[in-house]
Design brief:
Among the domains are: 149 residues, Serine Threonine Protein Phosphatase 5, Tetratricopeptide repeat (Alpha Horseshoe), CATH 1.25.40.20; 122 residues, no CATH class. β5 and β6 form a beta hairpin. Strands 1-2 form a two-stranded antiparallel ribbon. It has a two-stranded antiparallel ribbon with strand order 3-4. The chain is mainly α. Helices cover 56% and strands 3% of the residues.
């Protein structure tokens, strides 16, 4: 049926003019906007002004989108008709999608001074915050809009307002190099010594982006050179980021002590030796040498290094203590690399996450050259540091699983102790994440979702590690291995995926995901050896997932290609021999026989069928609808409910 139209509009559009209000406000079509609003009654108009429209990534009221686009006359018109001035919406600014924006925040972030002035004149909240607690002043300071910054401040905006990361308008102005905004905010009382969640001050922000002029101005105005939570002062931050000119600038300043100068030089050299983007072995050595020369410059007051216990991962090497010892390293790139890693650990501390990337990078270099033992040692050390600092290690587990598979492909089997060490880290990570899930400190659904995904990732990496172990270990010795005890420990935590699958479900299922390149080639599922490892360690064969499926339900869906029938037989028979009940029903009331994907699977199930009397009785209770809850013991209730 053809829809009748009036002046090019469908009757549907005329009957529901809300989208037209939004579009007119968005496009600055003020005459059309006025015409539509005038024709509405009070209820229709109020609804149209408050309705949020999804437009690409943006979800806004007409007033918010008009303010975001700088349509001053449209904003005036909407305010005349009592649009909510503190409405909240989702706005896209450049490539960022910001939730919880007010019209004033949207106008300030997109640089529309005239709209900002109008909204303030109409009593908009100058500190109206987004979902992340960003204020209009922070948005304007970020873009360096001094005109809007001054307008907001003169009208009472909080110059020290913090967002969820506890950074301030002054911090973001320093970060983006907006000198005029920095000067103005400090003049208006912005606190230079506030620290964000990571302990960074405005000086850290300026140093990170290499803004010399701003750093110089802040220091001239008396900013404190505080350390952040990684124990990095602005000087050490410059050294750790390999900002050579910034380091030279700081160590020449009169307030820089000799000890600070030495640490800045040594950390710079140590980092250059293990940072791929600025790697220069001669330059790295020269800065280490300059630091050592400073230590011995005054014979009457030597500044000796703190001695560190030599570590196996650094080949038990000790850090050079004298110029003579350091000179022995010159020309030996490997020795300088190790020296650098040891220096970094001494200066930054052994519980510092900043250590991790250079250690992992150096390990990767060893991996590329075929030195797998050194690589694994360094990667394991980086992972240990991460756990010590309560940081996620799911990426480390992913890297190890893929790397071990790479070794298997190269017929260079990883040592059992390496797999055990990584698997133990996986257990610790699963426990840490589980405890975090059970705490009351989670901030909303998003954090809960992220944690659940991390837990699932650990389950998959643990599965891959077991599958790799099954390929490299003599099965007759499995129960005597340390890994067997670790598997038991892990299974006691009841690890499951988001779909509720246990380790045994995953080992028996042909659709278990294997995303990483080498893992995909080496870890093929279903895997009999992995299943047996899990079952021997106490994996329960009758566990059910969120859909009520046992491992057998998933196993019989396997549709093998030519030559794969024996795998199907072995998987099904292994589960049946392990005591799985083939008559258990899932959430759809289906048994394994009902969901079997092939005739062969059905034949195997029929041939091995051995229904026990208790199973027959349980099915009869369900079939005839007999009451049993509260009549029989709880364990029997559960048994009946599964049939």
């Amino acid at each position: 049926m053809i829809m009748s139209t009036v002046d090019g509009q469908s009757w549907r559009e005329l009957l529901n003019p809300k989208p037209k209000v939004y579009e007119a406000a968005r496009d600055g079509a003020v005459i059309l906007l006025s015409d539509i609003l005038q024709r509405m009654n009070l209820t229709e108009r109020s609804s149209a002004l408050e309705t949020k429209t999804k437009d690409g990534d943006q979800i806004t009221t007409p007033l918010i989108i008009a303010a975001r686009n700088g349509n001053l006359d449209s904003v005036k018109m909407l305010l005349r008709y009592k649009a909510v001035i503190e409405a909240r919406g989702t706005v896209k600014v450049d490539d960022q999608v910001i939730e919880g924006c007010t019209p004033l925040w949207a106008a300030a972030a997109t640089g529309h001074l005239d709209v900002v002035e109008l909204l303030i004149d109409r009593s908009a909240d100058v500190d109206g915050r987004t979902l992340t607690n960003s204020t209009p002043l922070r948005a304007a300071a970020y873009d360096g809009r001094l005109d809007i910054v001054s307008c907001l401040v003169e009208n009472g905006a909080d110059v020290n307002a913090r967002n969820n990361f506890e950074n301030t308008p002054l911090m973001v102005a320093c970060y983006n190099g907006h000198m005029s905004v920095v000067t103005y905010l400090i003049k208006k009382g912005a606190d230079m010594d506030l620290q964000d969640k990571q302990g960074n001050t405005v000086l850290h922000y300026a140093v990170e982006r290499g803004h010399f002029e701003i750093a110089n101005e802040l220091l001239a105005l008396g900013v404190s050179q505080l350390a952040n939570i990684q124990r990095l002062t602005p000087l050490l931050l410059a050294s750790n980021d390999c900002k050579i000119e910034m380091v030279e600038y700081f160590i020449e300043r009169p307030e820089c002590t000799k000890e600070q100068r030495i640490e800045g030089l040594e950390l710079l050299g140590a980092t250059i030796a293990n940072e791929p983007d600025v790697y220069d072995i001669e330059k790295a050595f020269s800065y280490m040498k300059r630091g050592m020369e400073e230590r011995y410059e005054d014979p009457s007051q030597l500044l000796l290094k703190k001695k560190m216990e030599p570590l196996e991962v650094y080949q038990k090497k000790k850090e050079s203590q004298t110029l003579g010892e350091l000179a022995l390293l010159e020309g030996d790139d490997h020795a300088v690399h190790m020296e650098g890693l040891i220096i970094r650990e001494r200066i930054l501390g052994t519980d510092n996450t900043e250590l991790r990337f250079p250690i992992r990078y150096r390990g990767a270099v060893f991996a590329d050259s075929g030195n797998f033992d050194l690589c694994i040692g360094l990667w394991g050390h980086a992972m240990e540091i991460g756990q010590r600092c309560n940081q996620p290690i799911t990426d480390d587990l992913k890297i190890f699983a893929d790397f071990f598979c790479h070794m298997v492909q190269r017929n260079c089997l990883p040592k059992q102790k390496y797999i055990e060490e990584v698997f133990e880290r996986a257990i610790c990570e699963y426990k840490r994440l589980t405890e975090k899930m059970q705490s009351k400190n989670l901030k909303g659904e998003h954090e809960t979702k992220v944690l659940k995904e991390e837990l699932e990732n650990v389950v998959y990496r643990a599965l891959y590690l077991l599958t790799i172990f099954a390929k490299v270990q003599d099965s007759s010795k499995t129960e005597n291995s340390a890994l067997f005890d670790l598997i038991e420990r892990f299974l006691r935590l009841n690890p499951r995926t988001l779909e509720g699958n246990t380790m045994l479900h995953l080992a028996a299922w042909s659709k278990t995901p294997t995303e990483e390149h080498y893992v995909r080639d080496v870890c093929k599922f279903p895997c009999i050896a992995t299943m047996k490892l899990i079952m021997n360690a106490g994996g329960y064969v009758n566990s059910v997932n969120n859909r009520g499926n046992t491992p057998l339900h998933l196993a019989v869906t396997y549709k093998p290609s030519t030559g794969g029938l024996q795998v199907l037989r072995d998987v099904v028979e292994t589960l049946l021999d392990g005591g799985v009940h083939e008559d258990l029903v899932n959430s759809d009331g289906k048994t394994a026989m009902d969901v079997a994907g092939t005739d062969e699977a059905r034949r195997i199930l029929s041939a091995k069928s051995r229904l026990e009397l208790k199973c027959i009785a349980a099915r009869a209770v369900r079939k005839f609808g007999l009451s049993y809850f509260g009549v029989v013991p709880k364990t029997v209730e559960k048994f009946i409910s599964l049939h």
